[in-house]
Amino acid sequence: MHRLxxxxxxxxxxxxxxxxxxxxxxxxxxxxxxxxxxxxxRLAQGLPDLLRRVGETYDQHERDLTLRNRSLELxxxxxxxxxxxxxxxxxxxxxxxxxxxxxxxxxxxxAGRPPLPxxxxxxxxxxxxxxxxxxxxxxxxxxxxRQKFALDQHAIVSITDQTGTIIYANEKFCQISGYDASxxxxxxxxxVNSGLHPREMFTDMWRTIGNGQVWRGEVCNSKxxxxxxxxxxxxxxxxxxxxRPRQYIGIRTDITARKTMEAALRESEKRLQIxxxxxxxxxxxxxxxxxxxxxxxxxxxxxxxxxxxxxxCGSTWKALMHPDDCDATYAALEQHLEGATPVYEAEFxxxxxxxxxxxxxxSGRVIDRDAEGRAIRIxxxxxxxxxxxxxxxxxxxxVERAEAANRAKSEFLATMSHExxxxxxxxxxxxxxxxxxxxxxxxxxxxxxxxxxAEALLSIINDILDFSKMEAGRLEFEYGPFEIRPLIxxxxxxxxxxxxxxxVELTYVVPPSARGVFYGDAGRLRQVLLNLAGNAIKFTxxxxxxxxIRAETEFDDMVRLRIEVVDTGIGISDNAKSRLFTMFTQADxxxxxxxxxxxxxxxxxxxxxxxxxxxIGFDSTEGQGSTFWFQVxxxxxxxxxxxxxxxNPLEGARILVVDDNATNREVFQHQLENWGAQVDLVDGxxxxxxxxxxxxxxxxxxxLVLLDHHMPGMSGLDLAAVVRADPTTADLKLVLASSAxxxxxxxxxxxxxxxxxxxxxxxxxxxxxxxxxxxxxxQALPQQTTLSALSDLPAPALALRILVVEDNPINQQVAVxxxxxxxxxxxxxxxxxxAVALVERGDYDLILMDMQMPRMDGxxxxxIIRRLPAGKGExxxxxxxxxxxxxxxxACLAAGMNDYLAKPIDRHRLAAVLQRWIDHIxxxxxxxxxxxxxxxxxxxxxxxxxxxPAPASESxxxxxxxxxxxxDALGPDSFQSLLxxxxxxxxVRLGEIRAAIDANDINAIASAAHSLKGAASNLGFLSLAxxxxxxxxxxxxxGGDFEELEQKLVVAGKAAIDHLSRANPKT
Length: 1067
Prior knowledge:
By secondary structure, the protein is an alpha/beta fold. It contains 34 helices and 27 strands. Among the domains are: 3-96; 155-260, PAS domain (Beta-Lactamase, 2-Layer Sandwich), CATH 3.30.450.20; 279-384, PAS domain (Beta-Lactamase, 2-Layer Sandwich); 478-636, Heat Shock Protein 90 (2-Layer Sandwich), CATH 3.30.565.10; 654-774, Response regulator (Rossmann fold); 944-1067, Four Helix Bundle (Hemerythrin (Met), subunit A) (Up-down Bundle), CATH 1.20.120.160. A hairpin with a 3-residue loop joins strand 16 (615-621) and strand 17 (625-636). It starts with a helix and ends with a helix. InterPro entries: CheY-like_superfamily, HATPase_C_sf, HATPase_dom, His_kinase_dom, HisK_dim/P_dom, HisK_dim/P_sf, HPT_dom_sf, PAC. It is an enzyme of class 2 (transferase). It is found in: Cell membrane.
């Protein structure tokens, strides 16, 4: 127990000493307290423990006191030491502050700033100043780093010591030199020395930088690989405290590209100077404000002057110029100075020192303008062209002679074209009319031979003319909208007569992809196709010629059109293939002798296709046939197509095709299935009959049978007869496809009751129209002209009154005959003057005007007619010409004509041009003439009674075809009435002519004969028309044997009356 607690207990219990008090405490702890009351007993029991804890507290206090005393002793010693150290540090701090104040003032003074005020020289003020200086230093260091970064990005930097040893090289230096940094550091800068510069340059450089000055220059260095590079170098010396260089900083820019360009420019200038000297080209420049000029030595020399012999001013140039050239030259110069032309160019003459004139070609350009764009200085070259001018004069004279010769050739070809085409037109036209009459087999053969020969000759003429145009570079193209199907069908129509009567089938297919309107030269495409298909027909004696079309979209609205002509003809030998497209070349000479031709067609076709940006070619095997093709790119036009698209117009119809020709069957199948029909094919009449009878007893019998006419064994007509004889099939729709004249079937049809007859080659539109009509499905193409059963020409919307102006009697008859076939009335004028008189007296819907005629040509007549009063001067005028070389179309349109029709004239092109203008005529003139439409009812046409056949002796002067067409157009009753009127008019006209002859009234003779000629021609009495025409011409010419001519006319008139009496006694 703690001594202090024992002492306190001793005083409390009154013990004599500490031991007594301790004994008391021990006794208390050992005492039995059970006899004491409960509270006292618990107190007595806990008191010893309390005293123990109090004693421990005293012990702890004593320990803490001892510890605190020791701590105070130690702290006092440390404090003494700290105070001593603080005194020392305070003295050092005072010295540091003094030094710092001195340093700060020096820094401020070096920076040009005032010293610190006395009240700010304390520690706090100096601390603030140093913090500001450190911040400024950090900013400066940051800016320096950025500048170094920027410099390293764009410049080649190196640092060397005083001896040139590299101690720093940036990445740019490494890149351009090809060395690594480790290779450069420690190396002398001579490591990149190229050895190209003289020692004196480096001596000057070291002298400059050794004196503390900056050196600048262009240096060529060497890379590690030995290649060279150029730098624009700036070397800056870094000076020490004594202003002596201790390091050098080199800052360089890569100028290799510039140096390379300068070297190339120097070489170019060298070559230019050589060229200028060799080409005798002089340089000049002129200041427009000061009139100062520069003339090179060569400029002076070309005019015979020595250097500096002429005054260097613009006035010198003007004084030397030829007076006749001044205005044009000054005008060209002024235009360029004003900025109207990019370059000044002029040719003029300058006076040589010897007094002669030298031609000069001047070229120049303004090289300096002021702020307002006014020219200040112009520079250029002069080249002497005297020799060239002399050659040009010679060439010009030669060209003029060549052009004169070419004009003579063109005029000769034009004249020959007209002179040849005029009789050719008559031959072809008259043989065409002749072939439409009743002829014996021998006569038919002769007429066909004449027409074929004439067409061959015309083809040769056309080829030669096209070749001549190509030679002269005058082959023209006329681009416009057109449709593929009418183009192909037009070609087929033209070529169809060539396969009639031959064992050759001409077919074509126009797929849906080729529908629509395209933009191109339809005429040239037609020319190429006619040539290829015509050749195929010429060289195919048996089999087929098929025209196929493909149209594939290339991009946007561009279409690649490919047309193929496939034949089963004689083919082409391998050794002849390379010569095919050469002018005047055929496969071999025997081919030319056998089939004829000029050998120009394919060459012309290739030239046309090439000029249209297309391709042409062929594939052929000798003895097996050929495929000729061409393809061109055309733009698809957004114009409305004339085709009315009907989706699956024959859907559900079951049709049988009976044809022995596989190509025909394939074509019909393709067309019919595209229209939605169910098609069966058989290759002969026997198989067709079997198929018809089998189908008749099935759930789906045939609704229509398409028959070929000529088939081996049983023909299509034979099959039709059998079908009609069988009661179970008698009502089956039968359509016959034949290459024969449809009029041949009129009498047969009374028993065969064919539903329709289609002329071969069969047009797609005609086939579809026919099938839809016969199957009761309406009309496929109501706006299109299709082949009717008996005519391949459209019925006119209006029977026009037409004036034919033509000086050739044969061509007059051809035109009148064709117009009559087309349902129009025609008068004839022999020349332009007569045409003008007739137009003044009469009222015509349209004029067919020949171009070249005696007395007055067609262009002059047109001009006069256009100046007639309104109503007459507005008549539609169509030019007729055989001149294919000159720009007739432009001349016709310029003269006021409406359209153009090239000779020889055929009925299809004539019908097309009339159809083209019929709406215009109706709009401008009104329907003043009653419409006389052709009948559309097929049964009526087939069952109509034709005029009785004329005896063989009469067929020469009566054109029954014309009479048949008139009867078809007018109807039997009107036709008979017309014949009756005509029969009665013949004696009247003959009497008028006799009276005029007796009175010697040639005008009356011509008028009466003209009237009789027109009526006779329109009604097919060609001999009578010819006789009347001869008398008319004699009357117009004022000369001739009128008596003899009248006798011929009387004989022809009596023959006509006799014929009319036999044909119809009632007349």
